[in-house]
Specification:
The chain is mainly alpha-helical. The chain has 13 helices and two strands, in the order H-H-H-H-E-H-H-H-H-H-H-H-H-E-H. The protein has a two-stranded antiparallel sheet. Helix 2 runs antiparallel to helix 7, helix 3 packs antiparallel against helix 8 and helix 5 packs antiparallel against helix 12. It starts with 11 loop residues before the first helix and ends with a helix. 47% of the residues are buried.
Length: 365
Amino acid sequence: MIVKSRWPPLSWATVVPVLGIVVLGIAWGRDLGVVFVVLVALVLGGTVLAAVHHAEVVAHRVGEPFGSLILAVAVTVIEVALIVTLMISGGPDAASLARDTVFAAVMITANGIVGISLLLGALRYGVTLFNSEGTGAALATVTTLATLSLVLPTFTTSHPGPEFSPAQLTFAALASLALYGLFVFTQTVRHRDFFLPVTSDGGVETEEHTPPPSRQAARISLGILLVALVAVVGLAKVESPAIESAVRAAGFPPSFVGVVIALLVLLPETLAASRAALREQVQISLNLGYGSAMASIGLTIPAIALASVWLDGPLLLGLGPTQMVLLALTVVVSVLTVVPGRATRLQGGVHLVLLAAFLFLAINP
């Protein structure tokens, strides 16, 4: 008699996160040589890919837009953990780490993820289609959050420098949570159809082309996803001294560390968004891009505000003139991209050029 196992067969996506935890346990608190730093980087990359795989399994089971929301929140947890950890162990440069990382996340999501998704979708299908109502609402929320949390501190006068006073920081944190909560309610309950993929005739795509995984498979993937995220956070923290040393050795500004953190934590969403675009589901890609930007501000700023109670030193949130110009240009271009509800490879290229400008000016301010 053959007994059928309740568990799915082992695969690389199951083994790699466990390997990541093992490597994390070995490497934590130790000075790593060059060979081990490279090994940790390889395991980190594999764990990120595994996280993407299991997030897509969970997303397929729960459907859109819940799947995009799960991945966005999960990745934001990584971002917050990294920022707080590095601020605790960092020096004077850590005062602006939260601002640098959050702003980098906004630019990478609004220009990088959106641009890559539109370009890939347009290259394969000619014109990409999406719901302008839902995407426009997401863009408006991202713009408001970014202005409240990253632009206003530069102009307030209650506290010297680009910094909020305690009362202002509390208001910004509460407003961010309120806006994010309202958007999640709109996205998942009240107007869920605004965030579903659209068909060529303008209708909403409600059916999956492939059958969803079983409930048990989705639960297993959710558990492995959590393990993978823990491994990613820990391994990225282990790699952070090497990252900071590499940034200094390259002669880049200390603020570029925030860019590297954002690139690391947003890699799962970038891959997931690219895959969705190649499946002609650009709406899912935009949900991931703008949802990640929104979560990055709406959840990170309140968490950092709470952590600042016991963190020493100032918390610099206000953007500089160059950053504000890039943010303003990103918002204007994004509005022109979103309003028609369809885009070509040109719009994708424009967003990617904006991302390239941000990265270049982050290296050479």
